[in-house]
Design a protein that fits this description.
By secondary structure, this protein is α/β, with parallel strands linked by helices. It has a single domain, classed as Rossmann fold. The chain has 9 helices and 7 strands, in the order E-H-E-H-H-E-E-H-H-E-E-H-H-H-E-H. The strands form 2 sheets. Strands 2-5-1-6-7 form a 5-stranded parallel β-sheet, with helices on both faces. Strands 3-4 form a two-stranded antiparallel ribbon. Helix 2 packs across helix 5.
């Protein structure tokens, strides 16, 4: 029995950098991708396995559709102890899902963990290599402000909670630019996969 395991590539990037697009490109190339955000949504959605625990700790924040994210946000925003209590419910469940994902793809040469706050939440310590998705500040700003309900104030507040793009790029093994064409970005994804294949002997 081989003791080889997949190389774990952490994929991250600040808001509006195109991380979801890049994650989809890895998936299209046949690389298994674990989407941390999608996992949280599933856990908190209809029938999600942490909905009951959230309702018990934060009454009236869930319903038939799972967690009411607005109500839950109001219950924890600006309240560090409450936010910590929520994280104590969410993080272990996400970790279990991540471990199940890794076990299911133990034979793959490469897997991607798509984690928005990879650096901020300490997840960088659990990956072998890091790819940061990046774009020019004006491109990032235009993308984010085009989102429904987004405002300049909200954008600045989100950025304030994220490690600056320059620091992320400095700590990355690979930087994938997304301010060119989709084909150029896809070529960069292919380059990363090829580089990883060489380092793993795949």
């Amino acid at each position: 029995m081989s003791d080889r395991r997949p190389l774990i590539l952490g994929l991250t990037g600040s808001i509006g950098m195109g991380k979801s697009t890049v994650a989809a490109m890895f998936a299209d190339a046949g690389v298994p991708v674990f989407d941390a955000d999608a996992t949280v949504h599933a856990l908190q959605g209809p029938g999600g396995r942490i909905v009951t625990a959230i309702e018990a700790r934060f009454p009236d924040t869930t319903g038939p559709d799972g967690v009411d994210r607005t109500a839950l946000g109001e219950a924890v925003i600006g309240k560090p102890e409450e936010f910590a209590a929520l994280e104590a419910i969410v993080h272990p469940a996400v970790a279990e899902e991540r471990e199940a994902f890794l076990a299911a793809h133990a034979g793959a040469p490469l897997v991607v963990l798509d984690v928005p706050l990879l650096f901020e939440a300490g997840g960088w310590q659990a990956v072998d290599k890091i790819a940061v998705v990046s774009a020019a500040p004006d491109v990032q700003r235009a993308r984010v402000l085009a989102r429904p309900g987004m405002t300049q104030v909200r954008f600045e507040a989100i950025l304030a909670k994220q490690l600056p793009d320059a620091e992320k790029r400095a700590r990355a093994d690979f930087v994938i630019p997304t301010d060119g064409s989709l084909d150029a970005t896809r070529a960069e994804v292919g380059r990363v996969i090829a580089c990883v294949a060489r380092t793993t002997g795949g």
